[in-house]
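Researcher: I'd like a structural prediction for the single chain below. Treat it as a standalone chain; there are no partners to consider.
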Amino acid sequence: MHSLFIFISFILLTCMCLICNSSPLPIACAQCDAKVTDLHVNSEVGKQPRIFCEEPTFDFGSRDASETVDHTFVLKNTGTADLEIRRVQPACGCTTAELEKKVIPPGESSRISAKLSLAGRNGELQKPILIESNDPTNPAFQLVMKGMIGADFEITPSTMILRKNSPGAPATGSAIVKMQKNEPFEILTAKSGSEKLKLQWEKIPDENSYQVTAYFEGNLQPGEDVDKIFLETSHLRSKSLEIPVIVVAPKPIIAIPQKITINANRSDSVSRAIMLKSTAGEKLSINKVETPNPSITVSVDLTGDYGARIVLRNIQSKSVKIGQYIYIHLGSGQIIQIPLELTNNL
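Model: Treating it as a single chain, here is the predicted structure.
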């Protein structure tokens, strides 16, 4: 209808021009030309570009932090004039976006190839890509890549610590390996880097997790020994897992005397003292002292930073039995055992 109107108007103006040509005043033709030009301009009114994307937000779901997300956005010009893409600006350096073509004619499309690196990311993530164009109604159009980032597995504690009560004593520790998502998995094999650890793993009932237990039975010099547990799983994305391990052996503590002897023939109660000394230059602290009989009272006096004096009172020979010990619990986690013995020679 609009085109028909222009055609009829053109015919009328042509007739007017013919009339004007027959007129002795040539200025009339110039006026007619101006009217034709105005009509041409008016016919272009309403032609504008329109930017459109069927999927402006891409949800990549749950991904591991080691991955890179690739996605292609499709921009379309739904307007009636050329759409000019003037700028494509990702939010930060972790995102790149490559534009296929800058000028999009009406009805045509252009692709944007986007890449998002998830390295170092954790939790919920949302990264925008700003598109600036000559669309008068939407000059700053936004695309978004979003999702959840996190490791497939959670290991608690993140480092397994095995503490030995003495350099030659056995030590054990455990960790829980849990799948963060609702995806089944199995632990297929487990081994330690040093091959000094004995390993067991057991599925926890009604949970998508395993308990991994390590045993250390060898001798160890005082201090810390570092190891690592390597797990092979049936999971498609995380086929191998690692658990750092620290085996802690106590630093030397001198205890004098190394045993407490009581005369079996004595009918009265006696007192005994135990002196402790740290030889490694580490501060000595005592959490508690356990006795085999509640009637035995205990007092502890620290002698500087590296020593302690423990006094045991009200020890009665009739209450002492074979195989009984005084247990001294140190702040380092070490437990010193002092045996109680009966003798007839005192």
